[in-house]
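pinging the channel bc i need a second pair of eyes. not urgent but kinda urgent?? the chain im working w is below, pasted from the shared doc
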Amino acid sequence: MTIAPQRPSRRGVALVTVVLLTTFLGMTAAVLLRYAIVEFRLNQRNQMRFAAKNAAEAMTEFGAAELMARLQRNVNFSTGELTAAPLTTQGSRKSVLFASNATNFVDASSLRLWASSYSEAGRKYVDPGDPGNDFDPLRGQNIRSQTIRLLSQATARSASGQVEAPAYAAETIEIRDVFLFNYAIFYNITMEFHPGADMTISGPVHANVDSRYSASSTLRFQSPVTSAGRIIAAPLSNAGTGRPTGQNVQFATGLDQNADGVPDTVAINSGSITGANGSALGTYVDSDLAARSNSNSFAQVASQVWRGNLQDTSMGVIQQNLPAITAADPTQAHDLIEPPDASVTSSSDAAVQTRETQKFSNKAGLYIVQGAPGTDGAAAGTAPEPVGFRDPADAAAYKAQSAAGRATWRAANPNKVVTLPTGMVKNNRRMKDWREGKIVNTVDVDLGKMRTAVNPSGTTPATDKFQINGADWNLDASSGGWNGQVYVEVESPLSGFTATSDVGTLGSGTGTATAVRLVNASQLPNRRAADPSNSYLPEGVTVATNAAVYLVGNYNSPGLNAGTRNGSAVGTESTATIGDPKDGEVPAAIVADAINILSNAWWNSGSGLPTGDTNSFNSAASSRVASNTEVCTAFLTGNVATSGSGNVNDNYSGGVENFPRLHENWSASGNRTLRYRGSMVALFNSEVATGSWIDASYGAPTREWGFNKMFAQGRQPPGTPMLRSFRRVDYRDLSATDFNSLLTNSSYAFREM
């Protein structure tokens, strides 16, 4: 019989299959779980790493912010200052920003910050030919540079503590100081250009706030123009109409394609400017471009067309501030021209102390006090004779006396009083200022006589020298010598006095304001001339005052198209040479609440008198005909801001084109020329001379203005303030090895904060 084969049990096969499948699935699950755990830990580690990295960066930023705020309040600082006064902001922020919670993995106790010592200060030229400087607002300038490095460390940990990620960072900050007069034009208040005639500006131009441009003809800038605010191609909206609104405003491209030595320029309304799509832009270019042209920003177009020679705040331009003085409060800048404030002590706010040290009055080597009427032995209503001091502290002690006690104080302190050369300061004259609507008593300072006293010869009589207690003042003394800085304090600039003028038939009269007037100034005091090789002797002169200033005639120049340059006679000059100093020209500055220019016609060289005073009382500008004049000095002064509404001519500040105030008819019988070589700085709103531009009585001159190239070369007027800004030169994430290498590098002298 046939026996059927025995079939294997299906139950056994199924069991084996289940076992194998279970084993496979278990192994797969284990692999997936392991992968998930590894992936989780990797993601967690990356998360920790990013958290630590961000915390380390935050540490350097907090440290940098405190550092810059501190340095902006201090004029001077030592290289090891942080040893005695470490940074503190980052420490107080640790527990606040990195408090322990479910979403914060950074261990606040791991946050650490180190700062190096400051490097020694050095001079540096920001080379415009270096592509790395293409968009540096200070390119083309000589700067004073110091650096400091910050190091930081942070560690992030998981909640379980099993994952830990440290991070390290380094940042280098450059402290950049530049002379204020490195700029052809510098505004700490709104800058306005709206000239009716052609106008060309050479030299760097900077505005700390908004700047506005328009022109009837052509307004051309041949050097970089920067604004820490907006650049707007229109007059101020609150000024109505009446000023030029044309947009033929041209800026340098950084090229000279025809090699004629004149920078190429492109107008903001040029049809050759294209947008992002390659088509003609179809509108003018200013900071509001994006509102008029889709897909086009000012930063993008300006970068392509003007190659860094036209920049606003959107392109990273920051304010260039004097220490402890910001554009947000122009009244702070007005402190620079004020007399010393006895209420400021070592316990005063740091910013207040810093502003006090920067005052021209506190830096002066010759301090002249024009006392208020009725003081120091003068009859009521009349002014006393001006008194000189070589130390501002002595001037303060004198002023602290009673009106009657000042003469007694002088007699008791002969070693503290500088006897001025005969006739160097006269306070018996007056003139009419139609813009102010006032008769102005003038304190006339004869800079020709001052020049003789600063550089006397062996035959110069004692009456023409500076004397102290009957002996010649040692001008070159290491302490208390001549430093080229003169401050004239007018105790009552908003009131006048009675005096008898020596000009014409003016006779006796009373003024309603008092100002300083600079006369006989074609050649200025220059102690360096005593020994040109001695760099310790001050070169040139700075005259500062809390009042308004009127300068009369050629200043620091023999006259228009006169004198020599490099030994060769100067003929008719061109625009290209206006900025080149002549032989004998010295660094000079005038610092005042307002600066007015009176032409050569105002001064009678034969009589040595300001004969224009007589004609000033005639309301018709035609009676005050100007003559060609050249002025070569920096101006640091104020303005009367555009304000109100209605026709702009009734409210306009006058703009940069009318920055120096004029009082004569310069346009009679063919325009007279006002040639200016220097640096124009508007830091504040005038507080003494507050008459509106529309009330001025004058005819416009032919303006030939240039930036004085000696300033760019580092030959600055005595006491020139320094602007301070900062630049992050380098930021890097570091490995632990690189971090330790830097930290232990003794040349940096890192100290934990």
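so The first strand starts at residue 112 and ends at 115. and The longest helix spans residues 10-73. — does that match what u expected or am i reading it wrong
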